[in-house]
Specification:
317 residues; alpha/beta; Arginase, Chain A; binds zinc ion; 8 strands
Length: 317
């Protein structure tokens, strides 16, 4: 049973709610270089696994324009919503060629994060969005496969709730959470922590509250020591909420990663985070983050471990 003074209503069922919609895949053009099938393949693998009874797939609602404006400039939001971004802005985001479905996809994907956030605000425990972690999106422009910043929107939304005064964004994706850091730089109630490879995208880094860097080629033990430091920083801040960007692009086989983390190392990483969440009964939202392994099955296996292990944690909370 979940026991936290911060949460009023314990969950009736301890399944892991995961927000997901087929548009997460279908809203990306089939010719795009982005491995769009990773969402459908992952959900299929989870739902045909022994963990299926622990998982509750929820359908996202589209995020409102008003919630996008919490973290983004009106000019940029409206240009995107009207399908008026120019070629240069689209090129910086990637996911090209674009289909008109990119607009509803983006709104659903952001809505999935909001749904998971609202769930943990109400019930505690862990909830997840099976996409997102769009940490390269800035206030007035998108970048690196990220259009709007779900982490920043959720952090600001959480603070509107009286019981949530301190939020940690724990970003363990191999790329720096540059957009998140910039959008939230003046908010002292949100601590941004980014563990990433020093020589990787974005090449012009911004300043998170804590940037913990690894050199290319780093392996499991070195990586896990840095993750332990990030967890210590997290607990020292005494947060009410964790937003966990759980990208698995640090895997050795990842095409965009440059680190040499094994599947088992990635799993140990996740469980270091989950142990902290269990010990402190911390409401947590999981954002999927990056993963571009060749073969893509390595990415899917690592995300499968993430959600499967998260479902076991929720059973214990
Ligand atoms: Zn990444």
């Amino acid at each position: 049973m979940y026991e936290s003074k911060k949460v009023k209503n314990p969950p009736l069922l301890n399944t892991l709610p995961i927000w997901y919609h087929s548009i997460y895949t279908d809203g990306i053009h089939p010719d795009a270089r982005f491995p769009r099938d990773r969402y459908t393949k992952l959900v299929h693998k989870l739902l045909y696994s022994e963990f299926a009874p622990n998982i509750d797939i929820r359908t996202p609602k589209k995020i409102s324009r008003q919630n996008l404006l919490l973290a983004h400039d009106e000019y940029y939001v409206d240009k995107f919503l009207n399908g008026e971004l120019d070629e240069k802005q689209i090129k910086r985001i990637g996911l090209t060629p674009w289909t008109p479905e990119i607009i509803p996809r983006t709104l659903m994907l952001m809505g999935g994060a909001v749904g998971a956030l609202e769930h943990v605000i109400e019930n505690g425990g862990i909830a997840a969005n099976l996409a997102g972690g769009t940490h390269h999106a800035h206030r007035g422009f998108g970048s690196g496969y990220c259009i709007f910043n779900d982490l920043a929107v959720c952090a600001i939304m959480a603070l509107e709730n009286i019981n949530f005064n301190r939020v940690v964004i724990l970003d363990l994706d191999v790329h720096q959470g540059d957009g998140t850091a910039t959008i939230l730089e003046d908010l002292e109630s949100v601590l941004t922590i980014s563990v990433h490879c020093s020589k990787n995208f974005p090449f012009r880094k911004t300043n998170s509250d804590f940037d913990l860097e690894l050199e290319p080629g780093a392996e499991d033990e070195e990586y896990l020591e840095v993750v332990k430091r990030a967890i210590k920083i997290t607990t020292n801040f005494n947060p009410d909420l964790i937003l966990f960007q759980a990208g698995v692009d640090g895997l050795k086989s990842d095409a965009l990663g440059k680190l040499n983390i094994t599947r088992e190392g990635m799993r140990r990483r996740n469980n270091l985070v989950f142990d902290m969440i269990k010990k402190q009964s911390l409401p947590t939202v999981i954002f999927m983050g990056g993963g571009y392994s060749k073969p893509i099955s390595d990415t899917i296996d690592a995300f499968y471990d993430l959600f499967a292990d998260a479902s076991l944690v929720n059973l214990e909370l």
